[in-house]
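Q:
My hope is that you can spare some time for a protein that puzzles me. I hope you can help me see how the letters and the tokens relate. Thank you; the sequence and its tokens follow:
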Amino acid sequence: MSSATSLDFYDAELRAHHEHLRAAYGVSSGDSVLDVGCGTGLTTREAARVAAPGRVIGIDVSERMLERARQVTAAERLDNVRYDLGDAQVHRFDPAGFDVAISRFGTMFFSDPAAAFANLAAAVRPEARLVLLVWQRREDNEWALEIDAALGDARQSPPPGADPFSLGDPAATARLLEGAGFAGIRFADVHEPVLYGDDLDAALAFVRGFQDTIAALARLSDREATQTLERLREMLMSHYSNDRGVVLDSRSWLITARRRRYGV
């Protein structure tokens, strides 16, 4: 899998989720938009087309991802987009500078979620919209359970700040957002598949790049790692069909909220 192709694989995996985010964020012409954990910028570019001439800023901690984002954005001749390398938890945004903040699975990895969402709240104007896609609990996501089963005893619980399911509990996440300054918090169930394509080798390479998979394989001998990779391949093959490729079930939350008015 080439570098650019591997970076774009994540967008292809989540393509069934895109319409849910687009339908919910309500971006209008002239809006200023912040895209948190923007990756290679697909969601940033989609927002930019709607927001023009408003500005859209994508932020991510991966320079490699942002290089790809800038490359594609230039090719698409979008001139109202900027990408910043940084951690949204501590990044110095312009105060009350955005009308909408969006994120597609980019807000689950903060080391201090309370501080991170307070920083995001300060970055958006009063009554600005917050629209997030986050994974539901691990046990509700077939793709995670199937990978866990293939990894077996080599898998360990992720360290703080590395758990993709950290926002899966609606009650806890609602309290977190309320404490940060958001109100009108709603959770909508999104039941869409993750799509790993019709190339088993590419699908295996993608899953092998997951943090949990990398950490698990690093704890194994060469023989054990080879056996584990074969189990992962067999698992992916068991979810393969000629018409859809490799498809696994997933559950996520579409979270919508508004920044509280000051003092309200």
Remarks:
- The CA atoms of residues 117 and 177 lie 7 Å apart.
- The chain has a mean pLDDT of 93.
- The longest strand covers residues 124-135.
- Strands lie at 33-36, 56-60, 81-85, 98-104, 124-135, 182-190, 194-195, 240-241, 245-248, 252-259.
